[in-house]
Design brief:
about 575 residues, mainly alpha, 22 helices, about 70% helix, elongated
C-alpha cells in the first residue's frame, strides 16, 4: 500500500484500500485513501504555489486576469470537486456514506492548509497595500482589492459546495445516532464537517483588512475625482456636465459591486456606509462649493441680455462665459467656472444614484440568490442599501431645489422691467382704457416675452428636469406677486375682465413651457378673477350657493369684493352671503 502511495498509482491505491473493508478495517482503509488524496493534492498545489510571485503595478494592470493567488486557490478547490465527482460513488459503495464524510473532512482539512498558504503569501506580497503605505499606485491597490474579493468569493463558494455535498451524504446514513456519537469534536451533526475551520477564520480576518483598504481607497479616489480631475470641455456645445459625476459614480459602483462579489455581508455593509459618507460629505461638499463659486461668475454674466440671446448655429451658448476680460479662454476649466454645468452635475447625481441603487440590487440578487444558502440575508442587504442611499438622495433633492430657486433669483433682473407696469397698473378702468389695453397689453405679454428669452437660454444649457424646476419656481413667484397686487388694487368690472385676461395669458405661457401640470398654481388667481367679475348680488349669491372648497381665505374674499368700485351690495347682504 505504501509503495502504491509513493508511486502515485491511483488504481493500486484504490485496490489496496478496498481490501481493508473485508478485514473489518474499513476506517483504516479510508484513512490511507484520504492520506493519498491529500498528498496528491498538496503536491499539485505546491507547484502552483511556487509560481506565485509579487506582481508590480505595471504587470498587474496589464494582466489583471486571471488573478494568480485567487487562481491558485480556485485550482485547489476545483481539484477537490473533481475528486468528489470521481470517487464519491465508489467510496460510498465500498466503505459506506459515513466514511465518505470522513474523506471529505480530510480533503477540507487539506484545502485549509493549502488555501492558508496562498492567502498568507498574498497578504505578505501585498503588505504595502494592506498597511496602506503612502505612494502606492492606485492601479495596484485596485488590483489587490479585486483579487481579495475573488479570494473570499471562491472560498465561500467552495465551502457552500462541500457542505452541500456532505449534507446530502449524511442524509443517506442509516444509523445516524451511532454516526453522531462517533463524530469528532467541533463537527456539525448536519453535515459532519467542522463548524468553523482555520480557513474560514482567516478569510474573516482578510475581509476586515479588505474593508479598511477598500474604504480608504474609495475616499481617496473620490477626493481626487472632485478636487483634481474634474474637467469642463468648452469646445463641446452639446454636453453641459463635467467629468466629476461620471468619475465619482464609477468609483462608487466599482466599490459596491466589488464588495458584493465577496459574498460577505460584513464587507457589503461597511462599503455601503463608506459610499453613503462619500456622497454625503465629499461629493455633496464639492457640488455645493462648485455651485457657489460658479454662481458668482454666472450671475454677473447672465445679467447681460446679449449673453442669453440665441447663439449662432454651432456656437456654444456659454462661450463668452469661459473667456476672461481680454477674451482669452480661461485655463483648466471645471464645473466651478459654470453654474449650468454645476447644476447639471447635481441633477446627474440624482439620476446616477437611482442607477447605482438598481445596479447594486441586481448584484445582490446575483451574489445572494433566492435559492442560495444566504437568501435570508437579502432583505437585510436591501434595507442597508436603502438606508445608505435614500437619505443622500433626499439631501441632494433638497439642494437641487434650493439652487434652482437661486437660479430664478439670478434671472429676475431680466424680468423686472416687464413687471414694473404691474405695480403702477390701475384696474379701475372705463371702456376707453379697456379698449386700449386690448391693443396695448399692459404687462403680461411683455413679461411672457422676457421669460421666453430666459426659457430658451436655460433650455439650451440646463437639463430638462432642472429647467422644469426653474420654470415651476418662476411661475410660483409671478403668481404670488400677482396675488399680492390684486389684494392691493381697486377694480372696475372691465378692470376685472382685464385682470382675468392677464391671468389667462400668464397661465397659458407657463403651461406651454412646462412638462408638469402647474395650472393649480393659478387656482387662487382664477378664484380672484371670478369674484372680481361678478356683476350683481344675485351672481354672488349663486356663486356661494355652490359647494366648493375655496382656496382664498374669508378675509381675502371680502377684501376683493370691497375692491370693486362698481359692485353694489349692502353690508347686510355681504355679511349674509360671504363666509366668515
Amino acid at each position: 500500500f505504501e509503495a502504491a502511495i509513493m508511486a502515485k498509482d491511483k488504481a493500486a491505491v484504490s485496490r489496496f484500500a478496498k481490501m481493508f473493508h473485508p478485514l473489518g478495517l474499513a476506517r483504516e482503509g479510508v484513512e490511507k485513501y484520504t492520506e493519498f488524496i491529500r498528498r496528491s493534492l498538496a503536491e499539485r498545489c505546491a507547484s502552483e504555489f511556487k509560481a506565485l510571485v509579487p506582481a508590480t503595478a505595471g504587470k498587474r494592470a496589464a494582466d489583471a486576469e486571471p488573478s494568480p493567488y485567487a487562481q491558485a486557490l480556485t485550482s485547489a478547490f476545483m481539484e477537490i470537486a473533481d475528486i468528489v465527482q470521481e470517487h464519491q460513488q465508489s467510496v460510498e459503495e465500498e466503505f459506506g456514506s459515513d466514511n465518505f464524510v470522513a474523506v471529505l473532512r480530510g480533503m477540507v482539512d487539506e484545502a485549509d492548509t493549502q488555501a492558508l498558504r496562498v492567502i498568507d503569501k498574498f497578504t505578505k506580497d501585498n503588505i504595502k497595500v494592506f498597511k496602506q503605505q503612502a505612494g502606492i499606485d492606485t492601479r495596484e491597490v485596485g488590483a489587490v482589492l479585486e483579487e481579495t474579493a475573488l479570494i473570499t468569493q471562491r472560498t465561500q463558494q467552495f465551502h457552500s459546495y462541500v457542505h452541500n455535498v456532505a449534507a446530502s451524504v449524511v442524509e443517506m446514513i442509516e444509523d445516524k445516532d451511532k454516526w453522531k456519537a462517533d463524530l469528532p469534536a467541533g463537527c456539525s451533526e448536519e453535515d459532519g464537517l467542522l463548524l468553523e475551520t482555520k480557513l474560514v477564520r482567516r478569510v474573516q480576518e482578510l475581509v476586515s483588512e479588505y474593508v479598511q483598504v477598500e474604504n480608504s481607497f474609495l475616499q481617496q479616489s473620490v477626493e481626487k475625482a472632485v478636487r483634481e480631475t474634474d474637467m469642463l470641455d468648452p469646445e463641446d456645445g452639446d454636453v453641459f456636465t463635467t467629468t466629476l459625476v461620471d468619475d465619482v459614480f464609477f468609483i462608487l459602483q466599482q466599490s459596491l459591486l466589488r464588495a458584493t462579489s465577496t459574498f460577505e455581508v460584513q464587507a457589503v455593509g461597511a462599503t455601503l456606509n463608506c459610499v453613503s459618507d462619500a456622497i454625503g460629505d465629499q461629493l455633496k461638499a464639492a457640488l455645493h462649493n462648485n455651485l457657489q463659486e460658479s454662481k458668482r461668475l454666472y450671475s454677473n454674466w447672465v445679467s447681460h441680455a446679449k449673453n442669453i440671446a440665441q447663439p449662432a448655429p454651432g456656437q456654444n451658448p456659454l462661450e463668452s462665459l469661459f473667456k476672461d476680460s481680454e477674451g482669452k479662454l480661461r485655463p483648466n476649466l471645471t464645473s466651478a467656472h459654470s453654474w449650468p454645468h454645476s447644476l447639471n452635475n447635481l441633477q446627474q447625481c440624482l439620476e446616477y444614484l437611482h442607477k447605482l441603487k438598481e445596479a447594486t440590487e441586481a448584484a445582490f440578487e446575483d451574489s445572494f440568490p433566492h435559492d442560495g444558502p444566504d437568501k435570508d440575508k437579502l432583505p437585510m442587504l436591501h434595507n442597508l442599501l436603502s438606508m445608505a442611499l435614500d437619505d443622500r438622495k433626499q439631501e441632494l433633492d433638497q439642494m437641487h431645489a434650493l439652487h434652482c430657486r437661486e437660479g430664478v433669483t439670478m434671472f429676475l433682473g431680466h424680468l423686472r422691467p416687464s413687471l414694473e407696469p404691474l405695480g403702477r397698473l390701475d384696474y379701475s378702468i372705463d371702456e376707453a382704457q379697456y379698449s386700449d389695453f386690448q391693443v396695448n397689453d399692459p404687462f403680461a405679454k411683455a413679461f411672457n416675452n422676457a421669460t421666453e428669452m430666459i426659457y430658451q437660454h436655460i433650455k439650451l444649457v440646463i437639463n430638462s428636469n432642472s429647467c422644469e424646476e426653474i420654470m415651476q419656481e418662476l411661475a410660483t413667484r409671478i403668481v404670488k406677486r400677482l396675488e399680492k397686487e390684486a389684494l392691493s388694487k381697486r377694480f372696475s368690472l372691465l378692470g376685472a375682465l382685464q385682470f382675468e385676461s392677464d391671468v389667462r395669458v400668464l397661465c397659458s405661457f407657463f403651461t406651454n413651457v412646462s412638462e408638469q401640470a402647474l395650472r393649480h398654481k393659478f387656482a387662487r388667481l382664477f378664484e380672484m378673477a371670478s369674484l372680481l367679475s361678478l356683476e350683481s348680488v344675485d351672481e354672488l349669491r349663486e356663486l356661494f350657493s355652490e359647494v366648493r372648497n375655496w382656496k382664498l381665505a374669508p378675509d381675502e374674499i371680502r377684501k376683493l369684493i370691497d375692491s370693486r368700485v362698481d359692485f353694489e351690495a349692502s353690508e347686510t347682504e355681504l355679511s349674509l352671503l360671504l363666509p366668515s
